[in-house]
Specification:
Helix content of chain A: 55-70%
Number of helices of chain B: 4
Largest sheet of chain A: 3 strands, antiparallel
Helix content of chain B: over 70%
Radius of gyration of chain A: 20 Å
Largest interface: A-B, 39 and 48 residues
Number of helices of chain A: 6
Strand content of chain A: 5-15%
Strand content of chain B: under 5%
Structural class of chain B: mainly alpha
Shape of chain A: elongated
Order of helices and strands of chain B: HHHH
Number of strands of chain B: 0
Radius of gyration of chain B: 18 Å
Oligomer: heterodimer
Order of helices and strands of chain A: HHHEHEEHH
Structural class of chain A: mainly alpha
Distance between the termini of chain A: 19 Å
Distance between the termini of chain B: 61 Å
Largest sheet of chain B: none
Chain lengths: ~170, ~110
C-alpha cells in the first residue's frame, strides 16, 4: 500500500513535469515511460516513504488542506508586507529575539508543516525543534516573552487546521 | 487578458524580491536577514513563477513554472530553518539589541 501511494504520487509528478497533453493528441510514449520509471522507483524506495500511508486516502484531509491554503497564503502575504514595511522604514523598527513556543502536534510531518508555516508568516523564523513539542522561534518584533502567550499569538491560527490535516 | 494578469504577478514578485534584497543589506544580524531573505524572496519568486504559469497556461512550460513555485514554497523555509539552526549551533551571536534568547537560557539550564 505504501508503494501504491508512492507510485501514484511519482506518476502525478511525472505527468505534471512532462505534461503530455497537446492540442488534440496525447503523448502516450512519455506516459508509458513515466509509469515504468515510477513503478520501479516505488518498488525500490517504497519502504523509505512514510510511516502512515493510509492518511493519503482520506478525503477529509484534502478538504482541510484546501481550506488551509488560503489561510496560509493570506498570512504569507501579510508577512511580506510586514517585512517590507520594517525594511523600508528609515529607523528600522525591529525588536528581535528568540522565544519558545509549545505545540500539541505529534507526528513528524505535522511539525514540519507547522515549522515551515511559522517561517513563512509574520516576523517569525523557526530556529530549533525539540522532541517534546517545543519550538524555538526567532521573532523580528517580540511582543510576548511568556511561552503560553507567545504560543497563542504565533501558532493557534494554524494548529487546528494542521491537526485535522496531518494527525 | 491573461498576459496582463501574469505580468502584474511578475512585477509584484520582482518588487518583493527587491524588498528582500534591501532587507538583506539593511538588517543587522544573520537571523533577521534570514527573515527578509526567506519571506520576501519566497513569495517574490513564487509570484513570478505563478505569473509565468498564468501567461503560458496549461502547456509544458506553464506546468513547469507551477511545479517550480510549489517546490520553492516547500523547500525555502526548510533551508532557512537548517541555516538558522546550523549557525546557532556553531555560535553565531544575536544582534546586541535583541530582547530575549530562550534557546540560550534553556541550553545553559541543562
Amino acid at each position: 500500500m505504501r508503494k501504491g501511494v508512492l507510485f501514484f504520487l511519482l506518476f502525478l509528478l511525472w505527468i505534471l513535469l512532462v505534461w503530455p497533453f497537446y492540442h488534440r493528441a496525447i503523448d502516450y510514449q512519455s506516459i508509458f515511460v513515466g509509469a515504468i520509471v515510477s513503478f520501479f522507483v516505488s518498488l525500490i524506495f517504497g519502504e523509505l516513504f512514510t510511516e502512515s500511508p493510509h492518511k493519503f486516502l482520506s478525503v477529509k484531509r484534502y478538504f482541510w488542506a484546501i481550506l488551509y491554503l488560503p489561510v496560509f497564503l493570506w498570512s504569507c502575504f501579510l508577512a511580506n508586507l510586514d517585512v517590507a514595511y520594517r525594511v523600508l522604514h528609515p529607523s528600522l523598527p525591529i525588536r528581535p529575539g528568540i522565544v519558545k513556543i509549545r505545540t500539541r502536534l505529534k507526528s513528524k510531518s505535522a511539525i514540519t508543516a507547522l515549522a515551515n508555516s511559522i517561517t513563512l508568516t509574520p516576523g517569525t523564523l523557526t530556529v530549533d525543534v525539540c522532541e517534546d513539542g517545543y519550538l524555538y522561534v526567532h521573532w523580528i518584533c517580540v511582543r510576548e516573552i511568556d511561552v503560553e502567550k507567545a504560543t497563542m499569538i504565533i501558532v493557534r491560527r494554524f494548529e487546528n487546521l494542521l491537526e485535522r490535516i496531518f494527525e | 487578458m491573461n498576459e496582463y494578469i501574469g505580468f502584474a504577478f511578475i512585477i509584484i514578485g520582482a518588487l518583493f524580491d527587491l524588498f528582500g534584497c534591501i532587507g538583506l543589506v539593511r538588517l543587522p544580524d544573520l537571523y533577521n536577514r534570514l527573515q527578509a531573505a526567506t519571506k520576501c524572496v519566497t513569495l517574490g519568486t513564487c509570484g513570478m513563477l505563478f505569473g509565468a504559469f498564468i501567461i503560458f497556461g496549461f502547456t509544458v512550460s506553464g506546468m513547469k513554472a507551477f511545479l517550480c513555485a510549489v517546490f520553492v514554497l516547500v523547500t525555502s523555509p526548510t533551508s532557512a530553518h537548517a541555516l538558522a539552526r546550523a549557525s546557532y549551533v556553531s555560535g553565531v551571536k544575536l544582534w546586541q539589541g535583541s530582547v530575549v534568547d530562550k534557546l540560550k537560557e534553556d541550553i545553559e539550564k541543562h
